[in-house]
Design a protein that fits this description.
The protein has 8 helices and no strands. Keywords: Cell membrane, Membrane, Transmembrane, Transmembrane helix. It is found in: Cell membrane.
């Protein structure tokens, strides 16, 4: 797998934008839970960096991203604290943050797949690595806020990550040009996520109203 310098730079730039956006949206959730400023900052860091951390722990890939790059903590924690100052205006940027969240999902997925591919892990583990990177930060946020994770009750999210990962890894498997394969996978994944938000597409729900007696 050969990754061009321009592609690496673009992916890293999108990653930084995504973790800032994730930290800021997590800060709003913290505000809804009336957390103090330290709680806001910690929730922002956990949400933005938690998926990658969980991936690295499960894969035994050390050091963790934020340990190797401590400035990620300053960036995400600072973004979360900055949100406190601009919270009153955030509702006007809702659509922008939905777009950034969708971009973050596909970017995190590709990065997670790349980590597992570099470790020469099996196909299913590579896809799982991408999904964990893309989705687990939000799950940790909701669990810390004592909520049912958004992943399990909203529009297509994990499914989008899986589709993105399969397309990306498939392009690598069939030796398609790396930049083209990544662009196709991310574009399809992003489009699918935005359509899911627009039309409220979701997986079938399991509803059980009986009892266990």
């Amino acid at each position: 797998m050969t990754v061009s310098y321009d592609t690496t730079t673009l992916l890293h730039t999108l990653y930084l934008i995504a973790i800032v956006a994730e930290a800021m949206t997590a800060a709003l959730v913290a505000g809804q839970r009336q957390m103090d400023w330290l709680g806001v900052m910690l929730l922002g860091c956990v949400t933005a960096l938690g998926g990658g951390s969980m991936r690295d722990v499960l894969l035994g890939n050390y050091p963790l991203t934020w340990v190797q790059n401590p400035h990620y903590l300053l960036l995400t924690g600072g973004a979360a604290l900055f949100t406190i100052a601009v919270a009153r205006y955030m509702h006007k940027l809702r659509n922008i943050f939905l777009l950034l969240d969708a971009i973050g999902l596909v970017v995190f997925t590709v990065i997670g797949c790349n980590i597992a591919l570099a470790l020469e892990l099996p196909f299913l583990i590579v896809i799982g690595s991408g999904m964990i990177t893309g989705c687990v930060g939000g799950v940790l946020r909701d669990l810390l806020c004592n909520s049912i994770p958004l992943l399990f009750r909203a529009e297509l999210y994990a499914t989008v990550s899986i589709v993105t990962g399969v397309l990306y890894v498939g392009s690598e498997t069939f030796d398609i040009n790396h930049d083209l394969g990544m662009a196709i996978a991310m574009t399809i994944g992003l489009t699918l996520r935005l359509l899911a938000i627009r039309f409220k597409w979701g997986m079938p729900k399991f509803i059980y109203s009986g009892n266990m007696d």
